[in-house]
Structure formats: structure tokens, C-alpha cells
Amino acid sequence: MPFGIAAGYASCWVIQRLFLDRDRLGREMQVPQRERAPLSRAEWITLAVVALMATLWLSESWHGLEIATVTMMGALLLTLPGVGVLKWKEGLAAVSWNLVIFVGMALLLGRALIESGAASWIIDQLFRISSIAGAESHVLILLVLSFISLTSHLYMTSHTARAAALVPAMLYLAGSLKLDPTAVLFISTVGMNYCLTFPVSSKALLMFQELEGETYQPADLLRLSSILLLVHLGLIVVFYYTYWRWVGLAL
Q1: DSSP 8-state symbol, 87
Q2: Is the pLDDT of residue 15 over 80?
Q3: What DSSP assignment string belongs to 111-178?
Q4: Contact 157, 201 (CB under 8 A)
Q5: What integer best gives the mean pLDDT of the chain?
Q6: DSSP sequence for 5-55
Q7: Does the predicted model carry a pTM greater than 0.85?
Q8: Tens of pLDDT along 22-41?
């Protein structure tokens, strides 16, 4: 949580200075206030369906219904005539089909990378080029480990594929260099969660890019990531030598 707060604050600071002029930066933010009103019938139904779905997701080991099945059941309830809160055609129109196709293709690509051995080859080449396997300095190991994790979204779009390919390699690296595997995986996970360079690097980026009206362009992300990647690298180093070491996450 401390790292998340610091990274969020630093990211907002960079975004404001990079994309807002002095006039906009000095404006006071006006947050519209809505009057409180009792929940409508549609809102109560939606709340009940969401609560039911969350309960079924958390108790999957008891009833055996998978996440996708529960999600489809919830969607059917919300569009059921006489019970639901919106029409079936409205629900279909509200779905981001580009995002659905992207997620499916990313999962297939990630599986292909893993099953073909391409993901392992990429990691092996990164280790060879960076010479991290023969490094003795913990500072150098931390920098290379963080950089590989932070840039992993560039060559493996799927978060699942990144984790599946990097975790075994990082565990092997920790064992060969006699490092704490918990610290190695924690730092790697922090780096793997960074995915801000291209619109396809994150599902959230695609969702925001498809919003109506003026939004960001791929060039804006590339410009932003060129700065924030270095900021996150610096934050990882700072947190490692302060808070993380204090709580026992030392290499």
C-alpha cells in the first residue's frame, strides 16, 4: 500500500505537469454534488445481482460454478424481461466488443508463447544480455530485475502470460544467486503490474480510449511511459532500501 500511494501520487504529478498548462493546472476542481435520494427499483435489483455474483465468485470451491458462468448468469438476470434493469439489445450495445476480442486474443497469444517455449526463450535472452545471472552486486541485481519486470509488458501483453513466464525464471534466478525468493518475486510482481506504454498494454487503457469525446492518443501514452517507467524504477529502488527492507523483503 505505501508503494501504491507513492506511485499514484508521483504518476498524477507527472501527468498534470506533462499534459496541463499553467492555467488549467491552477484551476480549482469542481466536483458536481448530487442530492441524496432513495435507491430506485433498478438500483436495488442491480445491487442484489452484484451481491449474488460476488458471493458465488467467492464460493466457487463449494458449488463448482466458474467465474464466466456466474458472470453470464448475472448478465441474463439484469436483462431478463420483467425483472432486469435494461433491455437485451441495450446490454449488447454497451459491451466493448473490441475489449472482449482483445482479451481473448491476448490469452491465446500468451498460451502460445508459453507452450511454444518462446516466452522462456525471451526471458533467457534477457538474462543473457543483462548478465544478471552472474551478477554479484545486489544493487545491479535490483536494477536489472526491476527493469526486466517493468518492461515485460512490451513483449508479453497478457498479464497471465507474464506471470507464467517470469515466475519460474525468477525462482530459478533466486536459487542460483542465493537470493530470498519472496523478495525476488515481490519486486518482480511490482514491476509486472506496470503496463502503460501502449493502449494494448492494459484492458483499462483500452476502455478509457474508447470513451466518447476527447481522449488520449497512443503517442500520449508513449510520451508518458518514457517518464513514468523511470519514476517507477526509482521508486522501487527507494522503497527497497527503506520500507521493504524494514519489513524483511531483502535480497
Answers
A1: -
A2: yes
A3: HHHHHHTHHHHHHHHHHHHHTGGG---HHHHHHHHHHHHHTHHHH---HHHHHHHHHHHHHHHHHHTT
A4: yes
A5: 84
A6: HHHHHHHHHHHHHHH--HHHHHSPP----PPP-PPPHHHHHHHHHHHHHHH
A7: no
A8: 888 888 878 888 778 888 88
